[in-house]
């Protein structure tokens, strides 16, 4: 890879220019595409679950538990594989980890397209989770290396530009922390993201089914919390759901960014592997839990939405606690 910079710059300015060109020309677009595709692959099962033709072909009509497993299996394998990817990022670097994950990812997507039975599709979802589990360790490591500071340097100067060497509040805090596992701020963020995952994946996986069965949308329009479930008007219900999703995305983005203020650059890969293990395994329970509630609770969505609302409140409490500490 050849990077061109303006002539006549001082060595330090040249290093900054090179880093800036790399992060905005190569790193940022790659991560954007990486995450867009990952979100499609994670959530597209929700549309399949709401498709009457699919349910008939797979003999899954009325099998809410099996549908819940179809969604949750991906998150379970995702969570179990995440620490391994965290180790791989630390050992081999995020670039090689990304390439390896994409190979697994692509093969399992191909397997999914060939699936002719519930078992085959379930297996492909498990494999997809293994491939996608690299997302958080890879992304947080790359962001810590290339985006943490405006003056970040490439190669041997990256370490000196890391946030833990700053004299501002995050830098001072990180200087006094000898182990990421004893950093209570890290665990507060993990809990906040875990509860957020309960809301987001339970909400997004079952939303098309809810719109088709409870709100009587056609399958084509159902592709696109408590207040949304109780709203007497279908259109207002959808509006409230969209507002809930928008608010959720703001919250999760803030929580992710806070990781760069409470975790050192060197610990980012392994810490995000463990974090993904915990948050994704927690989120994995949500679609499965809703499936069982629907199966044994008469099919109504008010109880599942109440559980999701409680998760949001817990997540907000964690963020408030961090705010009181100055974050």
Structure description:
The protein is mainly α. The protein has one domain. It has helices at 11-49, 52-57, 64-92, 94-114, 118-132, 135-146, 169-175, 184-213, 226-230, 234-262, 268-296, 302-324. Helix 3 packs parallel to helix 6, helix 3 packs antiparallel against helix 11 and helix 6 (135-146) packs antiparallel against helix 11. The protein is globular, with a radius of gyration of 21 Å. The protein starts with 10 loop residues before the first helix and ends with a helix. 42% of the residues are buried.
Topology readout:
Layout: H1 11-49, H2 52-57, H3 64-92, H4 94-114, H5 118-132, H6 135-146, H7 169-175, H8 184-213, H9 226-230, H10 234-262, H11 268-296, H12 302-324
Supply database-style keywords.
327 residues, mainly alpha
Largest sheet: none
Class computed from helices, strands and strand pairing: mainly alpha
Query: Hey, roughly how much beta strand do the residues contain?
Result: under 5%
By DSSP (H or I, 4+ residues per run), the number of helices equals 12
The oligomeric state is single chain
* Count of strand segments: 0
Distance between the termini: 38 Å
C-alpha Rg, in Å? 21 Å
Name the shape in a single word.
Answer: globular
Summarize this, please?
Helix content is 75%, strand content 0%. By secondary structure, it is mainly alpha-helical. Helix 1 packs antiparallel against helix 6, helix 3 packs antiparallel against helix 4 and helix 4 (94-114) runs antiparallel to helix 5.
């Amino acid at each position: 890879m050849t990077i061109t910079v303006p002539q006549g710059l001082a060595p330090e300015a040249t290093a900054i220019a090179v880093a800036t060109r790399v992060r905005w020309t190569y790193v940022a677009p790659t991560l954007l595409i990486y995450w867009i595709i990952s979100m499609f692959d994670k959530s597209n099962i929700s549309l399949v679950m709401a498709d009457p033709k699919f349910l008939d072909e797979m003999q899954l009509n009325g099998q809410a538990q099996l549908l819940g497993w179809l969604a949750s299996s991906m998150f379970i394998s995702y969570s179990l594989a995440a620490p391994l990817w965290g180790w791989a990022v630390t050992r081999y670097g995020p670039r090689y980890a990304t390439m390896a994950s994409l190979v697994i990812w692509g093969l399992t997507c191909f397997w999914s397209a060939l699936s002719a039975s519930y078992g085959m599709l379930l297996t492909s979802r498990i494999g997809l989770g293994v491939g996608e589990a690299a997302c958080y360790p890879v992304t947080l490591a790359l962001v810590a290396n290339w985006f943490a500071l405006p003056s970040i340097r490439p190669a041997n100067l990256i370490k000196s530009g890391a946030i833990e060497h700053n004299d501002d509040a995050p830098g001072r805090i990180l200087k006094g922390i000898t182990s990421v596992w004893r950093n209570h701020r890290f665990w507060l963020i993990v809990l906040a993201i875990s509860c957020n995952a309960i809301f987001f994946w339970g909400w997004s996986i079952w939303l098309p089914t809810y719109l088709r069965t409870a709100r009587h949308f056609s399958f084509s329009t159902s592709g696109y919390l408590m207040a949304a479930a109780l709203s007497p008007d279908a259109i207002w219900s959808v509006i409230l759901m969209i507002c809930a999703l928008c608010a959720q995305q703001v919250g999760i983005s803030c929580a992710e960014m806070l990781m760069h203020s409470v975790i050192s650059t060197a610990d980012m890969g392994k810490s995000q592997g463990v974090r993904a293990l915990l948050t994704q395994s927690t989120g994995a329970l949500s679609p499965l839990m809703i499936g069982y509630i629907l199966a044994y609770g008469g099919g109504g969505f008010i109880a599942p939405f109440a559980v999701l609302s409680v998760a949001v409140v817990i997540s907000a409490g964690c963020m408030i606690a961090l705010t009181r500490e100055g974050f």
